[in-house]
Amino acid sequence: MIKGLVIYDEVDVEKNKSYINWLIEDGIKYNLDLELILAKDINYRVLDSKFKFVINRSRDFRITYNLELVGLRVFNKFNFCRLGNDKLEAYNFMETLDIKYPKVYRSIEELNSNKKIIEKPKNGHGGIGVNILKGFKSLDFNKNVYQGFIGDYVGDIRFYIINNNIVNSVIRLPKEDETLSNFSRGGNVELYKYSYLQKEIIDKILSNIDIDFGGIDFLLLENGEILFNEFEDAVGSRMLSYLGVNNTMELFLEHIRKSVKGMK
């Protein structure tokens, strides 16, 4: 058995208990002996002698950085973990690829009183902390990202990526009279058949970054155009399971097995 570690932040363990158990139990089928540890309990000095790899689900890219420093293979790697947990860095990355994303306001001087904007935590996920603002008196550009409101928004497309390949895609549609489409907040979800042109955009991203298991989210507009929204580092599979797609864990564990099989 190949020993590996699964890292979670303490506040996330209880709500992800079934997923953690699923990961650990199914890992045995792939010769992977997985052990759960809380982010706060990591001792970097002993990890490299006990474990061959780590699945970091804590969303803390500093942990991934330190794990890679001691020579451990981490799923996901540092660069994607960082982009998945800092939206501004992700937008800067899209800028280098010439991929469109919603207008981002980087200072109070760029705003004027007649704009409606979206406020998101830089490291947020699951729609937590997302607000629509009409007043701009208490903006915090160090903690949050501020985007222009999109009136012709249809829904969010999530592309599920394993081993740098699209394995599935879903579209999340907001409830009537709602703006946010997050599944955890009551949005509707359907399997999505992406176009060749949309796949070209995803392939362009994947040729410039490695994703072991993650999500790439785009906003779909009424004219069919898509705008990059965010990366999801510690992506889950609740939406896929809800839609009857249950092979994501198998694909991820098989990718891990093949990646670490020949490691010394």
Automatic annotation (TrEMBL):
Descriptive protein name: RimK domain-containing protein ATP-grasp
Signal peptide interval: none
Cited InterPro entries: ATP-grasp_RimK-type
Domain ATP-grasp fold RimK-type per the UniProt entry, residue ranges: 100-251
GO molecular-function term, one example from the UniProt record: ribosomal S6-glutamic acid ligase activity
Coiled-coil portions: none
Biological process annotations from GO: SOS response
GO cellular component: cytoplasm
